[in-house]
């Protein structure tokens, strides 16, 4: 079976060809949009990734992640973002690292945004780094928009991905999140994380105001809201409703 590089070579997509593509893109960005294109190494990694997605393969992609068991329409992108060990792009403000420069850029916008750049909900003062996240928050949390209904129960969801996860966890009986330390399996990744934290690491969620301890982050948020007046919503958030 041919390797990706061999198939690329057959298609004439050598490094020289990639460089020519970059030059053409740079001209287009400047003359059509008055924008300066990123440096060649940064753009090349996206070109190579897009090429890898486009090239034909003799092996069908089932969409099931071999690492976490979840289904993704863009499986290779998910693996690259979530499970790749080689992550050369490291955050200078925390221990976050990513396989792609754009992943680090997105992290910086979301997790380390300047206070003056944040978008604020006019109802509950939830803060986020993008207008799209703010729109999603308002529709899902305050307008109670529910676009998708579970075919097996009466629950409705804002996002299709949330409904799919619900069906898998609540109705399929599949427990794809397995603890590597004891072998226990869970329907949700959050359950696995909480299990590891409590059982294997002996950690609890502690209130920084009064020292009360809880078994879950949700219980701690409820406590802080009821007893200390702290808003339960998170300050920054990736779009995951």
SSE order, one letter for each helix or strand: HHHHEEHEEHEEHEEHEEH
Overall residue-averaged pLDDT value: 75
Main-sheet strand order equals 1-2
Helix percent band: 40-55%
Number of strands: 10
In terms of DSSP E residues, the strand content is: 5-15%
- Global structural class: mainly alpha
How far the N terminus sits from the C terminus, by CA atoms, comes to: 41 Å
- Backbone CA Rg: 22 Å
Q: Mind describing the biggest β-sheet?
A: 2 strands, antiparallel
Shape descriptor:
globular
Which segments are poorly predicted (pLDDT under 50) over 5 or more consecutive residues?
7-13, 49-61, 233-241
Alpha plus pi helix count: 9
Question: Oligomeric state of the chains?
Answer: single chain
Describe this structure in words.
With 241 residues, this protein is mainly α. It has helices spanning 4-10, 15-33, 40-54, 75-82, 101-111, 131-142, 160-170, 189-200, 217-228; strands at residues 89-90, 97-98, 119-120, 127-128, 148-149, 156-157, 177-178, 185-186, 205-206, 213-214. The strands form five sheets. Strands 1-2 form a two-stranded antiparallel sheet. Strands 3-4 form a two-stranded antiparallel sheet. A hairpin with a 6-residue loop joins β3 (119-120) and β4. The radius of gyration is 22 Å and the shape is globular. The model is unreliable at 7-13, 49-61 and 233-241 (pLDDT under 50).
């Amino acid at each position: 079976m041919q390797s990706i590089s061999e198939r690329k070579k057959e298609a004439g997509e050598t490094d020289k060809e990639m460089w020519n593509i970059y030059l053409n893109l740079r001209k287009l960005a400047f003359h059509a949009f008055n924008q300066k294109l990123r440096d060649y190494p940064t753009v090349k990694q996206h070109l190579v990734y897009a090429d890898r997605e486009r090239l034909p393969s003799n092996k069908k992609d089932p969409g099931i992640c071999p690492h976490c068991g979840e289904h993704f329409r863009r499986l290779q992108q998910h693996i690259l973002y979530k499970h790749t060990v080689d992550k050369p792009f490291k955050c200078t403000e925390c221990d976050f690292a990513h396989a792609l420069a754009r992943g680090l850029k997105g992290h910086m916008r979301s997790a380390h945004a300047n206070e003056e750049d944040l978008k604020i909900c006019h109802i509950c003062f939830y803060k986020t780094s993008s207008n799209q996240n703010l729109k999603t928050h308002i529709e899902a949390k305050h307008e109670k928009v529910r676009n998708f209904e579970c075919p097996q129960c009466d629950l409705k969801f804002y996002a299709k991905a949330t409904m799919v996860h619900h069906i898998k966890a609540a109705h399929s009986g599949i427990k794809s999140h397995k603890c590597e330390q004891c072998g226990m399996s869970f329907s949700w990744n959050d359950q696995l994380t909480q299990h590891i934290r409590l059982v294997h690491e002996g950690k609890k969620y502690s209130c920084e105001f009064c020292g009360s301890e809880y078994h879950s982050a949700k219980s701690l948020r409820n406590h802080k809201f009821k007893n200390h007046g702290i808003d339960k919503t998170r300050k920054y958030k990736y779009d995951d409703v």
